[in-house]
TrEMBL record:
Name of the protein this chain belongs to: Recombination protein RecO
Matches recorded under InterPro entries: DNA_rep/recomb_RecO_N (IPR022572)
Pfam families: RecO_N_2
Record-annotated DNA replication/recombination mediator RecO N-terminal domain positions: 1-69
Amino acid sequence: MQGYILKIQKIKDEDLIVEILTSKKLVKSYRFYGARHSKITLGYKLDFELILSNFIPRLTNTMHLGFKWLFDREKLFLWQQFIRLFHNHLKGLEDVDEIYYRILDDCAKKLDKQSPKRLFIEAYTQILYFEGRLSDRFICFACDEFIEDEEITLIRGFLLAHQSCLKRAKFKKNKIKELLETKQTINLNDDEIDQIYQILLDGF
């Protein structure tokens, strides 16, 4: 079985509760002396086995499936930020749709050669689209009126609003329209990416 570590919780002594996203489930497992093992790290991809018990499954036979970018401190930091967002979004679930694992796995495979912020923004739009929450009508979240302005703003979940209603960072309407339709960031400049990434950090 393979999956990504979404959360690690230290309990008595050096034992850990480890939550792992697989293609079908968010698995909560117990790892004896897990704090001693560097492979049990937030965001790492593992190959592992579970041994059933009366409490929660015991995590065993773990093997770290590494990526080159893990040696890049900035990319690892941003990856772990995104992983925490994933966990907050999925926490409490057991069975999950495969798309969440596929999106995370796709990001991990591309991260060596692509900008992490751009990659995660694109992944974010894919998840919102899958969940039926990606805005496709330019109606202001705050006043419920159509947005005719050439500049707009975004809030959590990429909800759209008049910049005059929310007084937040403003973006070119046509660029946001392209992002939401294509789920690509190619025509956004680095400053716009930084601003949109800050919105992403508010959560799904």
